[in-house]
Design goal:
There is one protein chain. The chain has one domain. Strand 2 and strand 3 form a beta hairpin. The protein has a 3-stranded mixed β-sheet. The protein is 62% helix and 5% strand. It contains 9 helices and 3 strands. Helix 6 packs antiparallel against helix 7 and helix 7 runs parallel beside helix 9. The protein is mostly helical. It is globular, with a radius of gyration of 21 Å. The N and C termini lie far apart (53 Å).
């Protein structure tokens, strides 16, 4: 294989990655469902069952009641065919939540330090849950899987080319290629998905009757939390955008999100 052909194949693969997945939300806040494949749904359900066996489940009504109350309203506006909805609170001090394909959502008790207990708590919790569920609606995990497969294919081509030309220590060049790809493609793509889920979550909470501006308040509270606990590493090294960047992006999007307030599904 000639170097030029290798370069062309690599560029074509990366170009396919860039254009194959269109945004799941447009400039007007209209969301396009990308229902995860049956394989991904089954995988998500199996992983969630494993988590329930290996982690401590919290049954404290201070947490479970608001989760079920907010989830009920969100489920009415989030279309996810084949979803087997389940919202489980786990004993975990980290302020986090997650969603897996198949309608499985986990909420750490630590997130309630951010959500608080005031008149805006339900709206902020809706921002948390709406964001996480949006990852599933947009099939973000499946996108990352296909993207990783394409990148591995490029690495195999590079290895074959170097091996065919008797290049010494090809593992060094391959490691450098992988590092550049991780920093220049994988991490930015992951951050792009986070921005997309922020916007989708704001639209979903608005449709459910929650003020989407609470999503901005969520990230302001998380920013304060992170500043008190050592800050954040540079964005170029992160899978998630900096809190400040998310706040600014949501502020720009908020006029669109507000148009969907109390909109019927």
């Amino acid at each position: 294989m000639k170097p030029l052909l290798l370069i062309l194949i690599t560029l074509a693969t990366l170009a396919f990655q860039s254009c194959a997945f269109k945004p799941a939300i447009d400039d007007q806040g209209n969301i396009t469902l990308r229902n995860p494949s049956k394989m991904m749904r089954n995988h998500g359900i199996r992983q969630f069952e494993k988590l329930k066996r290996t982690r401590v489940i919290c049954n404290d009504p201070r947490y479970t009641i608001p989760v079920q109350r907010v989830a009920k309203r969100l489920k009415e506006v989030i279309i996810l065919p084949g979803a087997e909805w389940e919202f489980v609170v786990f004993e975990d001090h980290s302020p986090n939540a997650f969603a897996l394909p198949g309608g499985k959502v986990g909420i750490n008790t630590g997130i309630f330090r951010i959500v608080g207990d005031d008149e805006r708590s339900d709206a902020i919790l809706a921002a948390v849950l709406g964001h996480e569920i949006s990852h599933t609606v947009a099939a973000h995990a499946e996108q990352r899987l296909y993207r990783a497969a394409a990148f591995i294919f490029c690495c195999q081509l590079l290895w074959y080319e170097m091996d065919s030309n008797d290049i010494e220590h090809p593992e060094h060049a391959l490691a450098a290629f992988a590092l550049v790809g991780y920093l220049a493609d994988s991490l930015p793509f992951s951050r792009k998905q986070e921005y997309e889920s922020d916007k989708m979550g704001a639209v979903y909470m608005a449709k459910a009757g929650y003020d989407p501006r609470a999503s901005i308040e969520l990230w302001k509270r998380l920013e304060n939390y992170h500043n008190l606990h050592g800050g954040q590493k540079p964005e170029i090294l992160r899978t998630h955008p900096q809190d400040t960047s998310r706040i600014q992006a949501l502020e720009r999007f908020m006029p669109i999100a507000l148009q969907h307030l109390n909109e019927q599904p």
